[in-house]
Amino acid sequence: MLDDFIIRAALAGIGVSLAAAPLGCFVVWRRMAYFGDATAHAAMLGVALSLALSTPVFAGVLLVTLLMAVTVSLLSGRSYAMDTLLGVMAHSALAIGLVAVSFLEGIRIDLMAYLFGDILAVGKQDLAIIWGGALLVLIMVGYRWSALLLATLNPDLARASGISPQREQLVLTLALAIVVAVAIKVVGVLLIAALLIIPAATARPFSQTPEAMALIAALIGIFANIAGLAGSYHLDTPTGPTIVCVIAALFVLLNLLKSLIQKTDALLARMIPSRTSEQPGLTDTSKD
Amino acid sequence: MLIEACNIDVQIGKKMILKSISLQIEKGRIITVIGPNGSGKSTLLKTLIGAITPVTGTLIKAPELSVGYVPQRLHIDETLPMTVKRFLQLPHKMPAKCLQNALSEAGASNLMNQQLNSLSGGQLQRVLLARALLTTPNLLLLDEPTQGLDRKGTADFYRQLNQLRQKLNCAILLVSHDLQVVMRQSDQVICLNGQICCQGKPEDVGNSDTFKTLFGLDGDGDTLALYRHHSHSRTTYSQPSANQEIHHAG
Description:
With 288 residues, chain A is mainly α. Chain A is 77% helix and 0% strand.
């Protein structure tokens, strides 16, 4: 079954989506969108490094993303704001990476494959790395889930419960570095952030709890991967960008659907007045 | 004694926020910390919950100490869906009955299935209080719990707090700006401005010169007399304290 490149591509996409969904939720909740983006861009330097040293791309990328994450956390708050530092480091790393790749002689490198992903070329070994990384991220985030949530909600409440917000931040940073490293093959460095953020953002209006949001984001990611793969196969379009197009389309469609539902609800409420009294959220009943 | 701080210095970055703080919290007492903005009130609370480690001095905690902490503000990001029920179970799962009990005790029994970011300021404070009660604390630390509430909301909140203390017999340390309400509810007032300027019974602190200077009151007795009413009818569980006299620390 794994001999079919389409099956391997689908499995790779599903693996990345599963890991990206809960992590993407945290990226959205903690307003780390730019952090995800910057980490992904810096990964290009990792690609260049590993090609130059003939090590697996996964290892080089992981090293660079981790280095950047640690440097940014150490330096931020001194003389530059976090986003300024990220901008400096991410784009410098991306540019240095692109220049470094051009120096590499003897290797013909398809740069596009790293910028936009090459999911159709996923081999059995890649698949093992992707699923290994994805499972590791799921275990990390799953194991620390409640602590991460509380630290996200309020650092002081977390400390009062014996949770170190810094440690939780580190867990997220590590998980983010791993996801970036495994997702390069699927969507490339320029589109990884889309895979993190858009499914989570799409899931938000339909979720009552953080767990529901992560689950819906995962389902959206998996669906978009399969639909994007099928679409790119039939339309002969680049696969990574097609997957992101599907996620973006879902974001727009589901948001429209949600506002349509709300409008209909409001209309029904006006037509049947008794409905309004069933909404406890609208009355302040805490006063005694 | 639940918790005792001896000569604590707290530094954040290079700035010394608290200097030689010594205080004791005894079982069942209400202690209020007052002080101008930036006087280190929140830092003191965070030090007591262990979120900040003092650079010098010792913090002695009784083995039976169980702290419930209500933070100054809880900003809930619009992007994070969170029901009250789920929030109360962070970081540990709790039986539904415990959750309902805590909510009732905090006067928020009907809020279980609401979204956190749909709550009003007063409702959110009650939910935070309920969360602090879940660990059956013998010391409640509240950081300006009535900030942003109107007069009625503030009065309601303090009434709830007073009922709670009588029921649970827990000590309460609270930071507040509401001089009037605060003074008449507390057993002891600590006046803070980087260091403890004075502490003692509310009426004594209220009449001290340090206090008047700190809050820009011109010392006419009428204003301060308001702060203490004499219906001292509630049961006090406090032991007599050795620390009732006023310390003028400059």
